[in-house]
Write a structure and sequence with these properties.
The protein has 491 residues and is mainly alpha-helical. The protein contains 26 helices and 7 strands. Strand 1 and strand 2 form a beta hairpin.
């Protein structure tokens, strides 16, 4: 848990404390919803119109003498002399006084569907420094269109000083990139109840890509969390190799008081794991599974409903029903690519690789940023012995997902088929650099050198295998074979 750096209070206009706002090491944690601040505090419950106009809405809770002042926002107020912000063709984009309003800085909006303007209700502090680090948008540059993030950050530094509190966004970004240092940070973030639940759940979902006893313990603790979203996320992303452990750990969540958690537990245990349930647990399991089916059928006119049913029937080893639901999802929304990817996986399992290829090519063509689909397509094409095309998609996936060392490994194997030896060696070494103890990668490099007569390099790899996996016979046998070959070369 991070130590509190600063404490401030929000007051009603008569001075009564509304809530304490704790500023922790990463961000201002107001917990408005958890402090019973609701939509109706700002909006009429029937018309959804604002209860007050302008800053008066925010000043229902925030002190005017502290926040509705130039020493806080550093901008001109309405009526003061100044130049508005204009577009290149001279159109006024933001009038003088806009920067003195709370909403443009803390709830910057954007147009959806061309005509639907929606303010951002996250109510956050502008952070142009995060824009420079992570590419995240910031409120300053939504008005100052002709300025850079660095320019905006310079003004914030001038006004508020050089210090910036660490932000959870940097941890989430590191987790998405699968950087090794993200592991402990994600564990801390996921387990800290002082952060918003959605932030904690996101951190927990990203933690699933990092293996280790401590991460497994973090997931076990998350299954007992007070927040339903944390429990549900833990069920969805917990990675256990033995079904017995999966049933033992997730089984109790079939009794969870929250329907979404029960349904997730039932979905996760569907198929082979359910056979390990006791007779009593199986009755509860079936009830939760029926809840899930009913919920998804209620939403079956949306792609996600059919997609989730497809996933369920795939887990239950009912491929025909799974395919029908995936196909229905695609018919409803042809842009919903997860259904195409999972349907392609089913086709591949049934040996219908041509159909799988068509679907994956559609996904990669429409969504080139979905590198996992490119990876799947590359593996499929390699299986079909279309090595040149396979290499192309694996190279794209490796660039898009640089921390996924398995992609580099598979790329190295494919490049060997194409006799692109130097590139193959580089790819295999790249995989080994990211996972230096991986037996597959060590052996692949040893095999690569042996087949090319580079026995000294092969011997070095064999010694690494023995050093890192002394209990495995393969390293010792490999070293003996190489040494015999070296002796034969001397004769």
């Amino acid at each position: 848990m991070l130590p509190a750096l600063l404490t401030e209070s929000l007051y009603f206009t008569d001075g009564q404390i509304l809530e304490e706002v704790y500023v922790y090491g990463s961000f201002t944690q107001s917990k408005m919803y958890h402090r019973d601040v609701r939509c109706s505090d700002c909006h009429d419950v029937h018309s959804v119109k604002l209860l007050k106009e302008g800053n008066d809405l925010c000043l229902q809770c925030h002190r005017a003498g502290e926040y509705d002042t130039k020493r806080h926002h550093f901008h001109k107020k309405k009526g003061e002399k100044g130049e508005p912000i204009k577009s290149s063709d001279g159109k006024v984009l933001f009038k003088v006084g806009t920067g003195a309003d709370c909403v443009p800085c803390h709830m910057p909006g954007r147009q959806y569907m061309v005509i639907d303007y929606r303010p951002d209700h996250s109510i956050r502090i502008p952070r142009p420094d995060l824009s420079m680090k992570l590419g995240a948008p910031n409120a300053c540059n939504r008005c100052h269109l002709d300025k850079t993030d660095k320019w905006s950050d310079g003004w914030l530094t001038k006004w508020y000083g050089p210090g910036r509190r660490p932000h959870y966004g940097t941890v989430i970004e590191a987790g998405r990139k699968r950087l090794p240092q993200a592991r402990k940070q994600l564990m801390r973030l996921a387990g800290d109840p002082l952060y918003p639940v959605i932030v904690r759940a996101t951190a927990l979902s990203l933690l699933a890509t990092f293996s280790g006893k401590d991460t497994t313990e973090a997931f076990k603790l998350a299954l007992m969390d007070d927040e339903a979203l944390i429990r549900r996320t833990a069920i969805d992303t917990l990675n256990l190799s033995h079904q017995k452990d999966l049933v033992r750990i997730i089984g109790p969540l079939l009794y969870d008081p929250v329907k979404a958690v029960r349904m997730e537990a039932a979905q996760r245990l569907a198929g082979q794991p359910e056979k390990r349930l006791s007779s009593q647990e199986r009755r509860v399991f079936q009830a939760a599974l029926d809840e899930f089916k009913t919920s998804m059928m209620y939403s079956a006119d949306f792609a996600f409903g059919r997609y989730n049913l497809g996933n369920l029937y795939a887990a239950l080893n009912r491929p025909e029903e799974a395919m029908r639901n995936y196909q229905a999802a695609i018919k409803i929304d042809d842009l919903f690519y997860p259904a195409k990817v999972n349907l392609a996986m089913l086709y591949n399992q049934r040996g219908e690789n041509g159909k799988a290829e068509v679907l994956l090519r559609e996904v990669v063509g429409a969504h080139p940023e979905v590198y996992d689909a490119a990876y799947s397509l590359g593996l499929l094409l390699a299986e079909m012995k279309q090595y040149a095309d396979a290499a192309e998609f694996l190279e794209g996936a490796a660039k898009g997902l640089p921390q996924r060392h398995r992609i580099q490994y598979n790329l190295g194997l494919v490049l060997q088929h194409l006799k692109r030896d130097a590139e193959a060696e580089a790819a295999l070494r790249g995989a080994l650099e990211r996972a230096p103890d991986n037996m597959d990668y060590l052996y692949a490099l040893a095999d690569y050198y042996m087949k090319r007569g580079q026995l000294k390099n092969a011997k070095s790899m064999a010694k690494q295998i023995i050093a890192k996996h002394p209990g495995q016979r393969i390293g010792h046998e490999l070293l003996q074979s190489i040494e015999r070959s070296l002796e034969d070369d001397k004769k």
